[in-house]
Design brief:
By secondary structure, the protein is mainly beta. It has two domains: 30 residues; 216 residues, Porin (Beta Barrel), CATH 2.40.160.20. The protein contains one helix and ten strands; from the N terminus they run αββββββββββ. A hairpin with an 8-residue loop joins strand 1 and strand 2.
Length: 249
């Protein structure tokens, strides 16, 4: 009797296990594992540098554009790995005040970034439709593509005649130019890298189509200059707000 009972229990457990495996396999087959997304939006950049050697000076953050193409792979529910390519501006302005009021330089920059991050879906990770929340963190490598500068300056020159110094002030001049990276007279560092984090709200219309609203923060670790100017390195800090459309494979 006991042998029959144990046999029935063993058969039941085996059938239950096989059924659970079949459901799990079917669920994984039904879930899409790859999400391709194109997004665009607004970047806000600022720079960090110790300006103790430049009185009456400050940096001001500026807005720019951001476009991105990325792929997110769900390798183990609810974990994802994402990789992409981004074209964005990391603009800023250098401005002087006080006796130097009116002196400024606008830096309009264009960067190419290649981010890779590890993250997870926190809300509804197993549902094909509806709202999802994803978070991710990682790093990026990049290249400084272009720089345009526009500034306003006033030259002051001291001339000495018979131990008397005469100060000559020249009129204001406005300069606008595209920086020549071939000569690179200011020794700018074109290699860009840092760490970044991302939070994204996703709404999937169907099994295949979705849209998103995201926030990304990029913390630059590469000095803008190849060498520290007066031992005061300069770094980018960039925030991005973007909207995107995605297709799941």
């Amino acid at each position: 009797m006991n042998i029959k009972l144990y046999g029935c229990i063993a058969c039941f457990l085996m059938v239950f296990h096989l059924g659970a495996q079949e459901v799990q396999i079917k669920t994984k087959q039904d879930q899409t594992m790859l999400r391709v997304e194109v997004s665009g939006g607004l970047s806000m950049n600022s720079v960090r540098q110790n300006l103790s050697n430049l009185i009456h000076s400050r940096y001001i953050g500026k807005e720019g554009y951001f476009v991105n193409a990325s792929v997110a792979y769900r390798f183990e529910d609810p974990l994802i790995i994402t990789a992409g390519i981004s074209l964005l501006q990391k603009d800023f302005e250098f401005k002087r005040s006080g006796p130097y009021e009116g002196v400024f330089t606008d830096y309009n920059t264009t960067y190419l970034n290649f981010p890779i991050m590890l993250g997870a879906y926190l809300i509804n990770p197993y549902k094909e439709k509806g709202w999802k929340l994803s978070v991710a963190a990682g790093g990026y490598l990049g290249h400084w593509l272009d720089l345009k500068r526009k500034g306003r300056y006033q030259s002051i020159k001291g001339l000495e005649f018979d131990d008397v110094v005469k100060v000559e002030v020249f009129p204001w001049a406005t300069v606008e130019e595209r920086y020549d990276f071939d000569t690179n007279e200011n020794q700018l560092n074109r290699f860009d890298y840092g760490v970044q984090g991302e939070v994204k709200v996703i709404y999937d219309f169907s099994k295949y189509l979705g849209c998103s609203l995201g926030y990304t923060y990029k913390h630059g670790l590469s000095n803008i200059y190849k060498t520290n100017i007066n031992d005061h390195p300069m770094y980018n800090r960039t925030s991005v707000i973007s909207i995107g459309m995605s297709y799941k494979l």
